[in-house]
Design brief:
With 405 residues, the protein is α/β, with parallel strands linked by helices. The chain is 30% helix and 25% strand. The protein has two domains: 2-7 and 273-393, Beta Barrel (Lyase, Ornithine Decarboxylase, Chain A, domain 1); 95-266, Alanine racemase (TIM Barrel, Alpha-Beta Barrel). The structure holds ligand LLP.
């Protein structure tokens, strides 16, 4: 149970010390998800590149780096964070459809493991940038395996017709082009079919297609080193991640014949169960036939319920009373879409009680904003029994206008 890691006593201490809303992470849960991955992939010599977009707080990144993980970054900003947190450059990969020339140069200067390119034009830009820097750019291609992962339409990415990756035909052309360039070195092939995927089946299909392609390229003289299966392993809100054994077996079986080193890019499965959003009940009211609990956290802190219809379990800390009723948990932002939970079955809280929103460790803080000029929440890390520390301060009013000129 995740609630075992986020006990009321420590949460009350954190709320008193850091205020609310506040993101609270558990070191123990984070490390456990990493060791679950290691167990599932034992013997496969896989490189885990933690996907910083899920949660790029330096304290968590440093823990991942300390466990020997690499990093998957998608912007110069994430590369900067990854390097600062202590990830070894030789274990960092850089993905994304729209890297700028400046970002490519930053990656090349940082000597990262490889750049995951997503178009011919990007590879040409990479070649130009590498030539300027007198370097050879190691790159991988993200191919689109045209596999459907049954997940939310905003986070399924492996179908043709989406903006991601290149087709196998295009990839072939790019690899052949690179073979004749002294500033390009093709080292890998990658897919990422989506996020919040609970079954190994779409991975098996995508990996079989990619493995076939890798072997075909090898027979034509293009020898790669890395087969990268992206991220996306799902984890239900309120739970730790399901054992990724089926994922490991599917990938191992598909790529065995290629002899390539396996790379995966997990984000959510490691970070989501690691964090909660801790909020405080401001007011209660009825509106029509609805009961509302108005808390001090909002969609600018956690946008997943509004954007994806995500259902994060909610728990109240305090002496809730009366019969269980259905409540919408809403925030102070001026939009009807500002809710953290809809129809949560709860007893009535008192004003000032704490409300916990579970599984907010991934795509929670990292997608937060200053909308409505709200100050971004601080982040706290539970480091042991009864012990915690602040790992990011709450923003201040002057932060809001600091960049305005
Ligand atoms: N690698 C690539 C190339 C990706 O695009 C992503 C996520 C990952 C790895 C990590 O996927 P994960 O293991 O975290 O599923 N904001 C959405 C999720 C967007 C995922 C984007 N790409 C959400 O809150 O559900």
């Amino acid at each position: 149970m995740l609630s075992d890691y986020f006990k009321p006593e420590i949460l009350k201490k954190i709320a008193a010390g850091a205020g609310t809303p506040v993101y609270v992470y558990s070191k123990a849960v984070f490390l456990r998800q990493i060791s679950t991955y290691k167990k599932a992939f034992r013997g496969l010599n896989a490189l885990f590149c933690y996907s910083l977009k899920a949660n790029s707080n330096r304290a968590l990144c440093a823990l991942a780096a300390g466990q020997g993980l690499g990093a998957d970054v998608v912007s110069g900003g994430e590369l900067y964070r990854a390097l600062r947190a202590g990830f070894k450059p030789g274990k960092i990969i850089f993905s994304g459809v729209g890297k700028t020339a400046e970002e490519l140069a930053y990656a090349l200067k940082s000597d990262i493991l490889f750049i995951n390119a997503e178009s011919f034009e990007e590879v040409l830009e990479l070649e130009k940038t590498a030539a300027k820097l007198k370097k050879t750019a190691s790159f991988s291609l993200r191919v689109n395996p045209d596999v459907a992962a049954r997940t939310h339409k905003f986070i399924t990415t492996g179908r043709l017709g989406g903006k991601f990756g290149v087709s196998f035909e295009e990839a072939e052309k790019i690899y052949f082009y690179a073979a004749g360039s002294k500033h390009l070195k093709a080292v890998g092939a990658q897919f990422h079919i989506g996020s919040q995927i609970y079954s190994a089946r779409p991975y098996r299909l995508a990996a079989a297609r990619l493995a076939g392609f890798i072997l075909k390229m090898a027979s034509r003289g293009v020898n790669l080193e890395y087969a990268d299966a992206g991220g996306g392993w799902g984890v239900k809100e309120g739970f730790e991640m399901p054992f990724p054994g089926p994922l490991a077996r599917a990938l191992a079986a598909a790529f065995k014949g290629t002899g390539l080193k396996l790379v995966i890019e997990p984000g959510r499965s490691i970070a989501a169960p690691t964090g909660i959003l801790l909020t405080r009940v401001l007011y209660r009211k009825r509106g029509g036939d609805k009961n509302f609990i108005i808390v001090d956290g909002a969609m600018n802190d956690l946008i997943r319920p509004a954007l994806y219809g995500a259902r994060h379990p909610v728990a109240l800390l305090g002496a809730a009373r009366g019969p269980i009723k259905k409540y919408d948990i809403v925030g102070p932002v001026c939009e009807s879409g500002d809710f953290l939970a809809l129809g949560a079955a709860l007893k009535e809280p008192a004003r000032g009680d704490l409300a916990v929103i579970y599984s907010a460790g991934a795509y929670g803080f990292s997608m937060s904003s200053n909308y409505n000029s709200r100050l971004r929440a601080p982040e706290a890390l539970i480091t042991g029994r009864g012990a915690w520390r602040l790992v990011r301060k709450r923003e201040t009013l002057t932060d809001l206008t600091a960049k305005e000129v």
